[in-house]
Amino acid sequence: MMSLSSSDRNRDTLGMDEFFAFDGDPDRVERVTVDYHHACRTRAKAPNSDDVVHRDWSLTERLVVDRASRTAEYLQDSSAGFTFSQKLQSGDVAELLDALEPDVIFGEIEGNPEDVVDDPLDTRGYTITVDFRHRPQRILRGSYDKKALPGSWGEFVSELSFLFEIHGMGELLDPAVYGRARRRTSDLMYCAVEFEEDGRRYHYISDDEEIAVGDFVLVPAGKENRRSVAKVVEIGFYPEDQVSFPVERTKYILEKLSEPEDWDEGRLDEGTKRSRHSRSRRELASDALIPRALLESVDYENSAIELDTPFGKIRVKLDGKPICFPYEVHEPSEGPFPDVDGTYRIGVEVQQDGKYHSLKLELSGEGAPGELEPGEMLEALSFYRNGGKITLGCYAAFGEMEEYGLDFDGQWDDNGIEVLIFPSTRTHTYRFGVCWINTCTEETDVQTWFGADPSI
Q1: Statement to judge: residues 239 and 335 lie in one domain
Q2: pTM, two decimal places
């Protein structure tokens, strides 16, 4: 049995709908019904004739939000011959109606200006019927557009749409459910996490199966493996040869936290911080790496205005104009990329003059746009064309320049990687890598990523 507020009891006893007790409940919305109609007429020439024929199309929709039944029901009927309905029953429906102010239901209607253009062949109209507990029914009508609708209508339908969305279609039609293979004992647990400051995703490995999406975890971040709090946004289990991010580049989650603030700055000593769990496997087992401190001292003897690859020409542009740039051909490594067909290393000197500049490495040619494959101190863009793959790389950390002690930033577009140089930038040497493989397989896919890293 539904309990009545003191205002309701007194109104019923006194027979006075306008009575207001000091419980803040003068009246309430019981039901909202929305009827929507879209009618459209198109003109077209009849087949084999100059006659003009008209085709009519219409769509009607109804939305009913009812407090008594705790339901929100949506129905759609099209002249094209289909119908659709969705019904939600939840206590959230009553809360949605509670948020409506009876005195100013949905806010004021501004109204369209007098010179608004009407199209009699394409019309959209609405009728909103609001039923209250005590006061008379209220009906709003008009064309279904911004200025002819109540001012806060968008907030109401947005909240309602969210309710339908979160309850959704369940799991039966969810590809994440029916397309998920069961975990094997040899699979690795990969967690995608986001840091609050930038929202970008990074991948970490964990052995703690109690970690779930939405949990906060402590992870090593940045070049110095600084302990940072991140939120887990996705979890997957993969065999080592099918991981979503290369094992050699992936660090381990340090621990799960109850809350973002639930960790002690001094709890992990320096020895623990530099343990296996706070270092990437690449740091532990990659003898092929060139020490990063040597990057500034590497010189290339060759130079070109462009380089040929089977996927298109490689060019470097300074402030949008092609420049001649130094490069060297890099031999395949017996370690991380033994099967690639070509690798270039490119170094560009930009003398700072106190102005903004852009330095872009780009790939010409037709084909699908590049796909981002960022790593730690590596910005990479990969292109899949004609069964092969080419990756462009840059020694940088876009969006994290301060965390990595850099004084330049950058961005990507469909065909290249662009370094952004500021008036305050003191760096003058910028390193790029290009690597390709003519026949790309699941096993060799990651090799161009390693080969495009100018620090290897």
Answers
A1: no
A2: 0.45
